[in-house]
From TrEMBL:
NCBIfam families reported for this sequence: oxido_YhdH
Domain Enoyl reductase (ER): 16-323
Organism: Enterococcus mundtii
Domain of life: Bacteria
UniProt-recorded name of the protein: Alcohol dehydrogenase
SMART domains: PKS_ER
InterPro entries in the record: Acrylyl-CoA_reductase_AcuI (IPR014188), ADH-like_C (IPR013149), ADH-like_N (IPR013154), ER (IPR020843), GroES-like_sf (IPR011032), NAD(P)-bd_dom_sf (IPR036291), Zn-ADH-like_protein (IPR051397)
Length: 329
């Protein structure tokens, strides 16, 4: 076999997607060939598959910021053929071909050995969404978040939000408010662990004040923009918000008052360039918590990617989408 299948976006002669045949390039330095079993679809992947997403650095490109699979060939002493691995973030699907491919060549520095108690499928049910959710939860735990505290999770029906709710529930949190505009998501979010599911506009005050009634201790915010602006004045003294998304916009209009009068913290969360040792610890934490059985998971193949990414950008997608790339391993 000299070629393999790869999903690709291109902007010549006009923007389009296609599944193409690619030849195997040679490995250099500490690179590794991985036979991909699964990838997933994140908001960033949806942007990468759209003409005006402003994610792809150069074309043609194979999106897919995550993948899991089996090492086929390695020039990195840390990995041997047959090893099960996963990769998320770094330049995958943005500046280097990503997970929407039967095989992928990647630096060994970007690979994480699959935890013993996690399957390749479970790894991609979580993917970057799971990594990000764990980073948010851990950041707030470091700030002092306790199981009895009131926690709001925004964008709850999305990947990061749903994983965060499942994690908090497994950790014993009893006051989890899920923000969701989708009435059809209410039942499954409650099953996931949300104490209550509310439309953001039913919770947030009509008029945004510099400081308002303290209604929540901690926030995991996947949305950003105006919604976070309106949430900050509601956070209680010594509380914090972990911010990991910008689906609601990149602008934040606020005052210094919540920070200097209530001592709240706004913590930025990046999942792309997380140090390797930290990744290892978080993936083991996710394996130990074992939350994948409770998540809403859609399964697709490469030829269904375009339809799925449009749903994500339209705001009609729920839960996690698993992409079955190669043979199930």
């Amino acid at each position: 076999m000299n070629t393999f299948k790869q999903f690709q976006v291109n902007n010549e002669p006009t923007f389009h997607t296609s599944i193409v045949d690619k030849e195997f390039p040679e490995l250099t330095n500490n690179e590794v060939w991985v036979k991909i079993a699964y990838s997933d679809v994140n908001y960033k992947d949806a942007l990468a598959c759209s003409e005006h997403g402003q994610v792809i650095r150069h074309y043609p490109m194979t999106p897919g910021i995550d993948f899991s699979g089996v090492v086929m060939k390695s020039l990195d002493k840390r990995f041997q053929p047959g090893d099960q691995v996963l990769a998320t973030g770094y330049g995958l699907g943005v500046s280097q071909p990503g997970g929407y491919s039967d095989y992928q060549k990647v630096s060994g520095d970007w690979l994480v050995p699959l935890p013993e108690t996690m399957s390749l499928r479970q790894a991609m049910v979580l993917g970057t969404a799971g990594l990000t959710a764990a980073l948010c939860v851990n950041a707030l735990l470091t700030q002092g978040m306790k199981a009895e505290d009131k926690v709001i999770v925004t964008g709850a029906s999305g990947g990061v939000g749903s994983v965060a709710i499942a994690m908090l529930h497994k950790m014993g949190f009893q006051q989890i408010t899920a923000f969701s505009r989708k009435e059809e998501a209410k039942t499954w979010l409650q099953k996931l662990g949300a104490t209550q599911v509310v439309h953001p506009e039913a919770f947030l005050p009509e008029k945004n004040k510099p400081l308002d009634k303290q209604q929540v201790d901690y926030v995991i915010d996947t949305v950003g923009g105006e919604q976070l602006t309106r949430l900050l004045p509601l956070i209680a003294y010594d509380g914090a918000a972990a911010l990991c998304g910008n689906a609601g916009g990149i602008k934040l209009t606020t005052t210094v008052l919540p920070f200097i009068l209530r001592n709240i913290q706004l913590i930025g969360i990046d999942s792309v360039n997380v140090p390797h040792e930290k990744r290892l610890n978080i993936w083991q934490q996710l394996a130990d918590l074992s939350v994948t059985d409770h998540l809403v998971v859609n399964e697709i193949t490469l030829d269904q990617l375009e339809e799925t990414t449009k749903k994500i950008l339209d705001g009609t997608h729920q839960g996690r989408t698993l992409v079955t790339v190669g043979e199930t391993i």
